[in-house]
Amino acid sequence: MTPGRKGLDTAEGVLIALRQCTVDEAFREMIRAAQQHQVPLFTLADALVTAASGHAECPNTAARAAVLAEWGPLLTTPERFTIG
């Protein structure tokens, strides 16, 4: 997936489903995580969507690590989204 607004919207949807939160809460959580892990927001969103879809081909190691740190336990198959 190409990072961008569409990917951000999809990532917000993933968080809404995982956390049962509002769109605003999902967006704020992603902003906080991006800042905390020093990863661009759209890159983090792309990594979250990739992880939620069960794929491990996210090329950004920092974004993968951030997703695992923030939401790994909530994803159905976090072992499929490994670093390395």
How would you describe this protein?
It is a single chain. With 84 residues, the protein is mainly α. The chain has one domain. 63% of the residues lie in helices and 0% in strands. The chain has helices spanning 5-19, 23-37, 41-52, 61-71. Helix 1 crosses helix 2 (23-37), helix 1 packs across helix 3 (41-52) and helix 3 (41-52) crosses helix 4 (61-71). The longest helix has 15 residues, at 5-19.
Keyword list:
globular; 63% helix; 84 residues; 4 helices; mainly alpha; disordered C terminus
Low-pLDDT regions: 78-84
Shape: globular
CA(first)-CA(last) distance: 20 Å
Main β-sheet, in a few words? none
Structural class: mainly alpha
Roughly what is the average pLDDT, rounded to an integer? 86
The total count of helices amounts to: 4
Question: How large, in whole angstroms, is the Cα Rg?
Answer: 11 Å
Helicity range: 55-70%
Hey, roughly how much beta strand do the residues contain? under 5%
Could you give the order of the helices and strands?
A: HHHH
Number of strands: 0
Number of domains: 1
InterPro entries: ANTAR, WH-like_DNA-bd_sf
GO molecular function: RNA binding
Domain ANTAR: 1-49
Organism: Mycolicibacterium holsaticum
